[in-house]
Design a protein that fits this description.
Layout (H helix, E strand, L loop, with lengths): L1 H13 L12 H9 L2 H7 L7 E2 H8 L3 H13 L4 E5 L2 E5 L3 H5 L9 H18 L28 H6 L4 E5 L1 H8 L9 E6 H9 L4 E3 L1 H13 L3 E4 L7 E5 L5 H8 L11 E5 L9 H5 L5 E4 L2 E4 L9 H5 L5 E5 L10 H11 L4
Antiparallel strand pairs: 1-3, 2-3, 4-5, 4-6, 5-8, 7-8, 9-12, 10-11
Helix pairs in contact: 1-2, 1-3, 2-7, 4-5
Length: 351
């Protein structure tokens, strides 16, 4: 009976936008067993993608209000479902695995869980390769964009952060996972930012701490200093910003292995080197996270298809030979993350 409920939960999660595909090894079922009790698995499948109050869920399922409320709150604290606040009321919903339940395991992840995730994430990544809309995108460093240039608001990262009211910062789960696997990363750990409902969830669950706008801008400064790539949610209203490195982040790690990383990472910019200004110092090559810069006749050039538009090279160039150039014909991202994941679901053919 317990095995069967996890198989059904796997199918349920696979019908959420980001999917949860089956594998030949069954590692995806072992992950669910580590996260959910059989009773929690059954309850998760009774929830909807939209947040609902306990009373609404109780009326629809016939469950007792008080008992249901306790179970839902326990599951939210375990990161098995998502909780949002509507004033003093709490509402609960089913949530996808990535971006979602995986990241919510920040306090629960151990060596066993990390090993299972390392096995499973490639299957999940392959299942999403054909999907046009990405959950995350790369946004250029503010210092890499020329002052006064016509840059859309959704590509000005500091402006986006300055609009936020509730902000949290937490440890990067990717770096924590790699550390558990014996591959520690020497870059800063506490650099992942969340905003709004996501921030409230992280703060309430003790996954992160609340910070001010000024502290959040300081995190962006630290990310630039540490050559981390800024990856916000792929939406005009950002919900989170991951500060990523290609040694730990599955998205960047996978993209770097491809001949053309730019085809797999959503970005609005690419770097351009002015050969007349280039001194050949090679600092840009050291900063580039995608091996997108190579030497050419005592100067340097950007390799076609490898630049993901992060701007790390621009901020270190001593002769201002590198600039960020907007890609032509790029459409604005979805309004918010809710719209982003619904687009993904539609592209997967989900109802």
């Amino acid at each position: 009976m317990s095995e069967e409920v996890y198989l059904r939960l796997r199918e349920f999660l696979d019908k959420l936008p980001a999917g949860y595909p089956a594998t030949p090894t069954g590692v995806e079922i072992r992950i669910l067993k580590k996260m959910f009790t059989p009773e929690q698995a059954e309850l998760a499948m009774k929830l909807r993608e939209e947040p609902e109050e306990v009373g609404t869920i109780a009326a629809r399922t016939g469950l007792d209000d008080a008992e249901l409320g306790e179970m839902l709150e326990e599951m939210a604290r375990k990161g098995c479902i998502f909780r949002v606040h509507d004033g003093e009321k709490r509402r609960y919903q089913a949530f996808q695995f990535i971006v979602g339940l995986y990241e919510f395991q920040l306090n629960n992840i151990d060596r066993e869980y990390a090993e299972m995730l390392e096995q499973y994430i490639p299957y999940l990544g392959l299942s999403m390769l054909p999907i046009k809309t990405k959950q995350l995108r790369v946004i250029p460093l503010e210092s890499s964009i020329e002052a006064g240039s016509a840059v859309a608001t959704y590509n000005r990262v500091r402006d986006l952060v300055e609009q936020q009211v509730v902000i949290s910062v937490q440890q990067c789960i990717c770096r924590k996972e790699q550390g558990l696997l014996g591959h520690p990363c020497d870059r800063p750990q506490e650099v992942c930012l969340c905003f709004g409902d996501f921030a409230r969830f992280y703060i309430d669950n003790g996954l992160g701490r609340r910070i001010s706008v000024e502290e959040a801008l300081g995190v962006l400064d630290l990310a630039e200093e540490s050559a981390l790539v800024l990856c916000p949610t792929n939406s005009q209203k950002i919900e989170a910003i991951c500060c990523c490195c290609p040694c730990c982040c599955p998205n960047l790690k996978g993209a770097k292995l491809m001949p053309r990383p730019a085809d797999f990472v959503h970005s609005y910019y690419q770097a351009k080197i002015d050969s007349d200004l280039c001194s050949g110092c090679a600092l840009c090559m050291d900063r580039c996270q995608m091996d997108a810069i190579r030497e050419l006749d005592d100067a340097w050039e950007v390799v076609e298809g490898r630049c993901i538009g992060c701007g790390l090279c621009v901020s270190e160039c001593p002769t201002s030979a590198i600039s960020m150039v907007a890609k032509p014909g790029m459409e604005a991202p979805p309004r918010d993350f809710h719209e982003t994941i619904h687009r993904i679901g539609a592209e997967r053919g989900l109802p």
